[in-house]
Amino acid sequence: MPTELPHKQVAIVGVGWSGGIIASELAKAGYECIGLERGSERKVNDFIMQKDELRYAIRYELMQDLSKETLTFRNDQDMLALPMRQMGSFLLGTDLGGAGIHWNGQCPRFYPYDFEIRTQTIEKYGEDRIPDDMPLQDWGISYDDMEEYFAKFDETIGTSGEDNEMTAPRSTEFPTPPMKQTKSMKLFAEASESLGLHPYISASANLSEAYTNPDGQTINQCMYCSFCERFGCDYQAKSDPLITVIPTALETGNFEVRTHSNVREIAYDGDQTNGVYFTDTRTGEDYFQPADVVILTSYVMNNTRLLLQSGIGEPYDPESETGVIGKNYCYQVMASAQGFFDEQFNLYAGAGALGGQVDDYNADNFDHSDLDFLHGGTIQCTQTGIRPIATNPVPPGTPTWGAAFKEASAHYFYRTLSLGSQGASLPYRYNYLDLDPTYTDSHGDPLLRMTYNFTEQDRNLAAHQSARLTEILEEMGANEVFSNPDIGDYNIMPYQTTHNTGGVIMGADPETSAVNNYLQMWDCENLFVVGASAFPHNSGYNPTPTVGALSYRAAEGILSYLEDPRPLAE
Description:
The protein is built from 11 helices and 23 strands. With about 575 residues, it is α/β, with parallel strands linked by helices. It has one domain: FAD/NAD(P)-binding domain. The protein is globular and about 70 Å long. The two termini are about 40 Å apart.
């Protein structure tokens, strides 16, 4: 029998950005919370003098141990899903702070169009523009409703940036100025302007100057050291949960973190939950944590998996198109192009979110009347810093070994610029998540199965963006430009982006969504499921600021529920 622990008012499953935000807001309000984190404890001092590319970027020190738990993947229902055996298309974080530790720090806001995408698409282009197999839906909330929560997340992390007419409107200024503009960024901006576009310096959680947030937590100034993605910041200059929301929650005395606690089931009586079951990953002991309110704030995949394992909500069936748990899994549609130059650029210095971008081809900022896709994507010239092990750009056709390879590698190391487009991923009837019928994890629980492939919508969007990237690089003066406009089928390898979304989507109708706009489960009113799992589709942007904004809104709803338990939206 599991050992029953002392009762808590709130149990939070997963302590990253979402869990940390909710813990800080509830703990400040005086509620007793426990955060159950299946990874180990992490502190900011763990990352001092840890610029070790081999350890963190190549051997994935901060990532999930796939020998103990992974997921299975297939492109379609006719394929046998097989386990992902090594980190590939995306990087599943672990430990206290979650993926918020190893993120790059890019901080764009989703568009008003994103939150009401079905309504606005039909109003402008007609209902026939939405394919029958694309379950596109509004989010059950508007950008105007969300704007104050975006502003609160910006204030918490100290976002550095500058306004631009092509981005979502803001009620407040950026807390800190934009980052430095490098030579490559300036060249990108000049070329973009000459093409009639609207470039700007990207919004960043790698701060341009030291900043103290409203909770009294200080984030330092970025040193442009190039060790952001896959790394914790040893300067404490990249806003992450360990230096912002988690200490804020702990300082109240109302928040306890219990690490090495792998939640495997949510207790559910068909109406409400009264706690969660978890296993101590060090001892193998089983525990029951009773609570008045349970909040799932683990990564996208695990939020969905826990609901399916616990029998909460109706699993999605792509054949009948009924059910909601596992529905609308979306990813990101990436396109890229490389330009090879005569002149050199100082590319060793960089930061995770250092870059310039244009959004003229994002969302519905451009006319789609004669195009064969919806939405779009941002176009970026980033300077994240070139680290020696993983950086070896040479033009296609260069020998892959020997003297010619070495000569080209040395020549182009500082003479290659890459542009990328991060495109929206819209839902498809047969892209979904469910439990694998064959494979289990180290505890004997079924793995999550991901069924996903790129659609014609995705391929057409990628080809369009690839052409735009080529135009800009040619305008920048590259001698040679190489791109791959045909993305083909999705593959679990190589790395593309960690921007997984969907599975526990939000909306205004319990028939087509799992949670309401406070991220409260329709089928279990004292259970909230928070994170990118709530996105009905993925935008042409990084998801973290929208996750942060939704977390602050969810925290507001949870506080209201704790004061007066009830469904928060009808």
